[in-house]
Specification:
It catalyses: 2 a phenolic donor + H2O2 = 2 a phenolic radical donor + 2 H2O. The protein is an all-alpha fold. 53% of the residues lie in helices and 2% in strands.
């Protein structure tokens, strides 16, 4: 009898401990949600909007089919969002009230594209699942789908971001790397976001897609002091001549040249081969190889140029890492009904 009593007491005690741990877990989870530091998770919308990812994928697919360059534009939108205040959809906000949009900042003005695609995705999602899917999550999903559609790797996108209530015009001017950045400046820009030099090189590989304006690479092809200022000399004069035929010394700011002259519409590792051959379009591309005297970055460039699968793996890891920069979760921020305006503004308009 004593043995049975002891067994009963032991089982009762164990169940009490299990219940206690469950209560503590649920309490801790609730507190994290209230504080807004809950982690992003896969399948976040599985119950609340089960077709969310399918809707995003389909609209991105149609947009890229109509305009192949849109893949690079959607990927770039996600970058420019995350580098200013975090991945919170702030880059999508228009001017309203006394707030100046990030779209008006130097790195974005007449340069960022794809806003109408995001608007369309949001419109369809609001019809399917009102006030459920954030604009910040749409950006993250659209970037992934854009990469896949151009032959790049796929990955599971952690979701649960909420949208900011405001934008930062000054932050966009300060934190988004310029096309004529030195290597030290690039490293500092990325470190401010919690990203290391491995992330810098891998994420720079996104320049395997898309085009840049003459305004962005004019200094690289006409400034006679580039070697002195940026520590590298031109190694492909034929490439320079071809760029000068496209981009005049003055005017023609919006003339476009491919960031990857070999496979400009395909997500692959040829960008890194271009760097080794001196055919990076932007100064900020070339310094990754030519300014790195200690081979800390060159070793990544050579590795990615030699092994596309390794580049894809590193790119995915860095994209996931970048997608977690200063995200808003829990009760922080909001789920915008219109990605261009905070809900308080749209309420007032109505």
């Amino acid at each position: 009898m004593r043995s049975k009593s002891r067994g009963f007491l032991f089982c009762t005690a164990m169940k009490s401990v299990q219940v206690l741990f469950l209560v503590l877990f649920l309490t801790n989870t609730s507190l994290r949600l209230l504080r807004g530091d809950a982690p992003l998770i896969l399948d976040y919308y599985k119950e609340t909007c089960p077709h969310a990812e399918d809707i995003v994928r389909r609209i991105v697919e149609i947009a890229v089919l109509k305009d192949p360059r849109m893949a690079a534009s959607l990927l770039r939108l996600h970058f420019h969002d995350c580098f200013v205040m975090g991945c919170d959809g702030s880059v999508l906000l228009d001017n309203y009230g006394g707030m100046l949009s990030e779209k008006q900042a130097g790195p974005n003005l007449n340069s960022l594209r794809g806003f109408e695609v995001i608007d369309e995705i949001k419109y369809v999602l609001e019809d399917a699942c009102p006030a459920t899917v954030s604009c910040a999550d749409i950006l993250a999903l659209a970037a992934r789908d854009a990469v896949v559609l151009r032959g790049g790797p796929g990955w599971g996108v952690d979701l649960g971001r909420r949208d900011s209530l405001t934008a930062s015009f000054n932050g966009a001017n300060q934190f988004i790397p310029a096309p004529n950045s030195t290597l030290d400046t690039l490293i500092a820009n990325f470190q401010q976001q919690g990203l290391d030099i491995g992330d810098l090189v891998a994420l720079s590989g996104s320049h395997t897609l898309g085009k840049a304006r003459c305004l962005s690479f004019r200094q690289r092809i006409y400034d006679n002091n580039v070697e002195e200022k940026f520590g590298y000399h031109e190694r492909d004069e034929h490439y320079i001549k071809s760029l000068r035929s496209l981009c005049p010394q003055s005017g023609g700011n919006n003339v476009l040249a491919p960031l990857d002259l070999v496979t400009p519409a395909r997500f692959d590792n040829h960008y890194f081969i271009n760097l080794i051959e001196g055919r990076g379009l932007l100064i900020s591309d070339n310094v990754l190889f030519d300014q790195d005297l200690h081979w800390e970055i060159r070793k990544h460039v050579f590795a990615y140029a030699a092994n596309q699968d390794y580049f894809f793996e590193s790119f995915v890891n860095s994209m996931i890492k970048m997608g977690n920069i200063n995200v808003l979760t829990g009760v922080n921020g909001e789920i915008r009904r219109n990605c261009r305006y905070a809900n308080s503004y749209t309420n007032g308009k109505k």
